[in-house]
Amino acid sequence: MLDIVILAAGKGTRMRSAKPKVLHTLAGKAFVSHVIDRAHELEADGIKVVVGHGAELVEQNLAAPGIEFVEQREQLGTGHAVQQVLPLLQAEATVLILYGDVPLIKTASLQQLCDKVSDSAMGLLTVSLENPAGYGRIVRDEAGLVSAIVEQKDANEQQLSIREVNTGVMAVKGKHLLQWLPALSNANAQGEYYLTDIIASARQAGIMVETSQPSSESEVMGVNNRLQQAQLERIYQRECAEHLMAEGLSLLDPARFDCRGTLTAGNDCVVDVNCVFEGAVSLGSNVHIGPNCYLKDVSVGDNTLIHAYSHIEQAELDAACNVGPYARLRPGSKLAEGARIGNFVETKKALIGKGSKVNHLSYVGDAIVGEGVNVGAGTITCNYDGVNKHQTLIADDVFVGSNTALVAPVSIAKGTTIAAGSTITHDSKQEQLVVARTKQRNIDGWHRPKKK
Ligand code: UD1
Ligand code: CA
After folding, report:
1. What pTM was estimated for this model as a whole?
2. How far is the CA of 222 from the centre of ligand 2 (A)?
3. Is the CB of 72 under 6 A from ligand 1?
4. Which of 117, 252, 349, 361 could disulfide-link 332, Cβ–Cβ 3.0 to 4.6 Å?
5. Ligand 1 pocket member 222 (CB < 6 A)
6. Percentage of residues of the chain with pLDDT beyond 70
7. Per-domain boundaries in the chain
8. What CATH number belongs to 226-434?
9. Ligand 2 centroid vs 97 CA: distance in angstroms?
10. Quick one: pLDDT band at residue 363, thresholds 50, 70, 90?
């Protein structure tokens, strides 16, 4: 059995924020949610989050089946924080203690740590740092066994020179915590109940303290301020970019790439600089995305081109489409094979049929557009009457002249040609020419007004 305890009661004063620290985000997701993801990957039987500052907000944001919250009203130290969950811990479970503000920890490192735990041993994640200042130091005896953790503020000269430090992450049998935690004292430099004091208890009880190390330092880096947040964000994005490149995605500059969700790509896709991917984005093969595009919850078919500065959300693009530059595809946009959406075109809840084109400066919303349709520049579906939304239907092979207003609800039959500048309020029949504009008058002998 595995119980995971996540400490998330701290205020995060140095974030200088009204929001509790653990709700600040990395790759668009709360720090603590990254940690919870790891807990799920480890298939924890229970996840207990210790909340304090902004408890209500934290609980609201994290509420989900399998997650329990325990309030630590006063932050009297890491040991005190874990004491709050004692009544919920199973004696036979392995208890893994994580931190809500250490978001890059990896599942493999945690699994390795948990594997050390038994009735006669606990696991402690340590790391050796060039500059160990601020961290608890790992004190080892002549045999090299861990005998204590000494906090920076309680350490003597010799202990301060130790470079191996406590990451804070540890795994212990529940029954051992149940024995040791109630006995903690706060007689130390900070007047806190230190979780780290259980190391000395373990030694006294003859329980081995087995250490393991993360694969990189960044895994155990905590966030205390906005600079560290930005640094961890870059580390995360770099790893994500490297992973995608290893899978065959071409990123023109991995340093100018942001994925805040999941991105999958087929063969030979190319992503230019400064693109942002959110939610679930899937690219087929041979998709090219120009610079400065934003895609959220989008699926893109093979051979589709998305040009610079396109903004695409909750949309489905079939194969061989051509979008942008400066296109905006809003939720519910679906482009069939070979559709073309040009510059300054906005679509919403719109199906654009096979090979149809909306090339310039148009709004197509609440519309179903058939195959082989040409929508001229400046065409607008007038879908909203101020109260309700209405639909526009455009059948196959329609030609919509430039600057047409289609006042919905309206249905344009197959093969209709609409003259430029028309305001369409009535349905058409197949193959009709529809002209709905005032007749041009040319007036002779007109004199322009003169300035008085
Ligand atoms: C702790 C460790 C130190 C380790 C360091 C790694 C102790 C006594 N010291 O020190 O050995 O090197 O982490 O970063 O454990 N928290 C609560 N409630 C509390 C106190 C803390 O939830 O009452 C949470 C904080 O929000 C934070 C985490 O526990 O997420 C660590 O607390 P912090 O005060 O930063 O511990 P350190 O002094 O850095
Ligand atoms: Ca800390």
Report:
1. 0.94
2. 7
3. yes
4. 349
5. yes
6. 100
7. 2-220, 226-434
8. 2.160.10.10
9. 14
10. very high
Query: How many helices (DSSP H) and strands (DSSP E) are in the chain?
Result: 8, 35
User: Is the CB–ligand 1 distance for residue 7 below 6 Å?
Assistant: yes
State the distance from the centre of ligand 2 to the C-alpha of 19, rounded, in angstroms: 18
pLDDT (tens digit, 9 = 90+) per residue, 171-222?
999 999 999 999 999 999 999 999 999 999 999 999 999 999 999 999 999 9
Q: Within a 10 A sphere around the Cβ of 384, how many other Cβ atoms?
A: 12
CATH topology of domain 2-220: Spore Coat Polysaccharide Biosynthesis Protein SpsA; Chain A (3.90.550)
Tell me, in angstroms, the distance from the centre of ligand 2 to residue 103's CA: 13
- The percentage of residues in the chain with a pLDDT greater than 90, rounded to a whole number, is 100
Average pLDDT of the segment spanning 309-330: 98
Closest Cα to atom 3, ligand 1: which residue? 136
Ligand 1 mutation target, pool 22, 51, 78, most atoms within 8 A of CB: 78
User: What b/e sequence results for 29-53 when a residue is b if at least 16 CB atoms lie within 10 Å of its CB, and e otherwise?
Assistant: ebbbbbbbebbeebebebbbbbbbb
Question: CB within 8 A of 227, min separation 6: which ones?
Answer: none
Active site residues: 360
Give dist(CA 335, CA 338) in Å, integer: 8
pLDDT digits (tens, 9 = 90+) for 16-51: 999 999 999 999 999 999 999 999 999 999 999 999
Can you tell me the distance from the alpha carbon of 346 to that of 332, in angstroms, rounded to the nearest whole number?
12
Nearest alpha carbon to residue 129 among 233, 210, 216: 216
User: Strand, coil or helix: what is 399?
Assistant: strand
- Averaged pLDDT score across all residues of the chain: 97
